[in-house]
Every structure is written in structure tokens, then in C-alpha cells.
Design goal:
Length: 331
């Protein structure tokens, strides 16, 4: 499809053209507006997914003699901790691994001498979510891959926010990174150019050829969020969907939630069947009734309904109806 009557499509134009620069500039401005960022926070569209950020964050912030603090609430935060240990000391201030990541730890202390404190706001595999962003005496770093733009946040509270685009923002191939540039340039190590945030800030996400199509779709999604009424509307819709589905799980005699009530994710609703011999049958029944993709992650089993911003309430109600009918047939 032709872009802005220029005779070329988005994927044909140069990433250094004024037309694509306009795409990046508008997308960046929407991010700033929605998350209420300050002037020191620079918005980047990078590549490598959130997984690349597991190493890029400590590469830029954590000196060999320094210490970073992390909280472990699921598989993704566990992976982030593993990578950070390659660069310096890591203190895990709390972990819910003792109960297979079915809750978010409370009442932990963040060390004042840490270089930064890293959180994962939502864990897709286990279905837990940090409902409250902790107050931190040190710069706060957050992996928000699976719940960014799902609700309002105080964006200015964070030193770094990163998120793979492929949940609430756009297709895979782009990674949103928001970094307070005042945190940079303080480690003693040399950093390869592509892993150093500063060249990307200097070149406005265009240091190398970016994922142009993915960024353009991110722009379209950001426009859509604003047109819908912003993050307050997203939050209201997401809570309505999640509340309806959790209510059915709690009511239905065949299913039970796997996460403590206060920490249940509004993005990834994880549950299991109380009669394990029916698990395959329910997966098949759901698929035959047009509810696909609800099989749980291979590491935890059970079921997982991912209900990101784009999922309408009608889709959730469809799954609820399928669960009720399966219960009726298996009493």
C-alpha cells in the first residue's frame, strides 16, 4: 500500500528518508504522551526482543564491582537474573519460586547501594502481575513486555523501561526501550556499539537499519490507543475481560486458577482443570469451538488465555461459554 501518496510503500522507502523519520518521530511522541515521560527519558525502537535487554541493561549500567537488585517472580525474571550475573553482583531481594511462581513477593527490602532495581511487571508463563509498582531508593528498571500500554503508569518513575512489541504494541521485530540518559556512561567497561544505548539515542533509533514495518505498525497501534481514549480506557476494558474470565474459573467446578487472587494477571489468565484426565479433551473441545491458543506453556501445563488489548470482550465471553458447556457435558 502506498505511503502518503509518495509512490512507494512503507517497506520500499529508505529508513533515512523524511517520510520514515516522520513515522519514528510520531511514534516516539505518542509513547511520551501516553506514559508521561520526562525530557531525560529517551524513546528507542531497537531489535533483539526483550531478551536482548536482559544483557543490554547490565552491560550499560552494572559495573563489575557494582551490584544490581532483582525480584524473581517467574521464568522471564529468572532469565534476566541469569544474564545480569555475567556483568556484576546480583542480589535477588525476593523470589516466589518456592511456590512455583504463583504469587508476587511482598515486604522485601531494596538495597540502597544497588545500581538499579529490576522488576518484571507481568509474567506471561505463570500468569502473575505486579499490581503496584514498588517505591525504589535506586533507579527502577522494568521489563514491561506483556503489560505495557494496558493501563496507566507513572513513566517518569523509571530509569529504564523495555518491552518486546509483540503483545500490546505491534508485531515482533521491534523492541521499545525507554532509557534515562543520565544513567549512562558510568561503567568502566567498553561497550560494543550496538549494545551501547548512547549511539542509538544520538541517532534516534536509526543507527542501523531498523525494523521499519514493525515500527510503522507500532505507530498505528499507538494512534489506535489514543483514539480509543488512552490508557484509562485500556485498563477498564482489560479489567472487565479479566474479571469475567476469573469469575467463571472460580465458579466452574472443573477449573481452578493457578495464581493467588491479588496477583492474577489481567493479560495472561492461567488456570488448570481439576480432573487432569480431561485436559486434552478440553483443549480439543475448545479448538473445535473456535477458541484456539489456550494451551498452557509447555513448562507449566494447564491453560492460558492471553487477553491483550486487542482481544475484545466478545472473545472472552466465547471462552466462558465453551467452559460452561464443557462443564455441563462432564458432570
Amino acid at each position: 500500500m502506498e505511503l502518503d501518496n509518495i509512490g512507494l510503500s512503507l517497506i520500499e522507502i529508505s529508513h533515512r528518508s523524511k517520510e520514515f523519520q516522520a513515522v519514528v518521530d510520531e511514534a516516539v511522541q505518542h509513547v511520551k504522551d501516553l506514559l508521561k515521560l520526562n525530557e531525560d527519558q529517551k524513546v528507542l525502537f531497537l531489535q533483539g526482543g526483550a531478551t536482548m535487554q536482559f544483557c543490554q541493561v547490565p552491560y550499560n549500567l552494572l559495573d563489575e564491582k557494582g551490584k544490581a537488585a532483582y525480584i524473581e517472580i517467574g521464568s522471564w525474571s529468572k532469565k534476566a537474573i541469569k544474564e545480569a550475573k555475567l556483568f556484576g553482583q546480583v542480589e535477588v531481594v525476593a523470589s516466589s519460586g518456592d511456590k512455583n511462581f504463583t504469587y508476587v513477593p511482598k515486604n522485601y527490602s531494596i538495597p540502597n547501594d544497588a545500581t538499579y532495581f529490576h522488576i518484571t511487571t507481568n509474567e506471561t508463563i505463570h500468569g502473575v502481575q505486579m499490581k503496584q509498582i514498588p517505591e525504589s531508593p535506586v533507579p527502577l528498571v522494568a521489563d514491561m513486555s506483556s503489560d505495557i500500554f494496558s493501563k496507566p503508569i507513572e513513566g517518569s518513575k523509571f530509569g529504564i523501561i523495555y518491552a518486546g512489541a509483540q503483545k500490546n504494541l505491534g508485531p515482533s521485530g521491534a523492541t521499545l526501550v525507554i532509557v534515562n540518559e543520565k544513567l549512562l556512561g558510568k561503567v568502566s567497561r567498553s561497550i560494543p556499539t550496538m549494545l551501547d544505548y548512547r549511539p542509538h539515542i544520538k541517532d534516534g533509533s536509526l543507527h542501523n537499519t531498523p525494523s521499519t514495518f514493525a515500527i510503522y505498525v507500532c505507530l498505528l497501534t499507538l494512534r489506535w490507543i489514543k483514539e480509543q481514549g488512552g490508557l484509562q480506557v485500556m485498563e477498564k476494558r482489560n479489567e472487565e475481560k479479566a474479571n469475567a474470565l476469573y469469575a467463571e474459573i472460580d465458579r466452574n467446578s472443573l477449573f481452578e486458577a493457578t495464581v493467588d487472587k491479588p496477583d492474577r494477571s489481567t493479560m495472561n489468565v492461567c488456570f488448570k482443570i481439576v480432573r487432569p484426565e480431561l485436559e486434552d479433551a478440553f483443549n480439543t473441545f475448545a479448538k473445535n469451538n473456535d477458541c484456539v491458543g489456550i494451551k498452557g506453556h509447555r513448562s507449566v501445563g494447564g491453560f492460558r488465555a492471553s487477553i491483550y488489548n486487542a482481544m475484545p470482550l466478545e472473545g472472552v465471553n466465547k471462552l466462558i461459554a465453551v467452559m460452561r458447556e464443557f462443564e455441563r457435558q462432564n458432570r
